[in-house]
Design a protein that fits this description.
The protein is an alpha/beta fold and about 180 residues long. The protein contains four helices and ten strands. Strands 5-4-3-6-1-7-10-9 form an eight-stranded mixed β-sheet. Strands 2-8 form a two-stranded antiparallel ribbon. Strand 9 and strand 10 form a beta hairpin. It is globular and about 40 Å long.
Length: about 180
């Protein structure tokens, strides 16, 4: 069964984007290892991202996920999709679609890309298997939080951790521990 994984970078004070929704603050963080991104991405079969994340990624230029299907959680059409595998899914369809995807043995893991909007309903439904958070040595003070306030309380089990020379710490937790 594929895993549903929330893989993301967050500031040390728990923000994934600044007050304007920007992620330029991440540009100073580079490491030859890629912070484990390559092996993570290799295991991914499908991406799920909210509309705000999708629009932001499209502004960056070329679509970086040409080799993977992506479901964009939105109530609006996805116009000018970068390839045929990029499709819109209504927010009210998300939980059922992920349940179906988890039954497909050879589909690869499911990556929740971006902020908390798409993650919250999946966490509430118990459909997120792993939280993979790279804590960046940066304080933002405000912005978009890693998780919505008032989300479900859940025990976590630390599966792995990795410290990098630049101060980044990558943590992988199993949910429902």
């Amino acid at each position: 069964m594929p895993l549903t994984r929330y893989y993301i970078a967050a500031s040390a004070d728990g923000f994934v984007a600044d007050a304007d929704g920007g992620v330029a603050w991440l540009e100073r963080f580079t490491d030859d290892s890629g912070y484990g991104y390559a092996p993570f991405y290799e295991a991914v079969g499908t991406l799920i991202m909210g509309r705000a994340t999708y629009d932001q990624v499209r502004e960056f230029g070329d679509w970086p996920y040409d080799d993977k299907p992506a479901l964009i959680v939105t109530g609006r059409p996805v116009e000018d999709a970068p390839h045929a595998g990029v499709r819109a899914i209504r927010p009210d369809e998300l939980v059922a679609r992920v349940r179906d995807m988890r039954q497909e043995d050879e589909a690869g893991d499911i990556w929740i890309v971006g902020g908390p909007a798409s993650t919250a309903p999946l966490l509430a439904a118990g459909l997120v298997d792993q939280l993979e958070i790279s804590v960046m040595p940066q304080l933002l003070g405000n912005g978009i939080r890693l998780f919505h306030e008032g989300g479900p309380a859940a025990p976590l089990k630390l599966l792995s951790h990795q410290a990098y020379a630049d101060g980044v710490i990558s943590l992988t937790y199993a949910t429902g521990a």
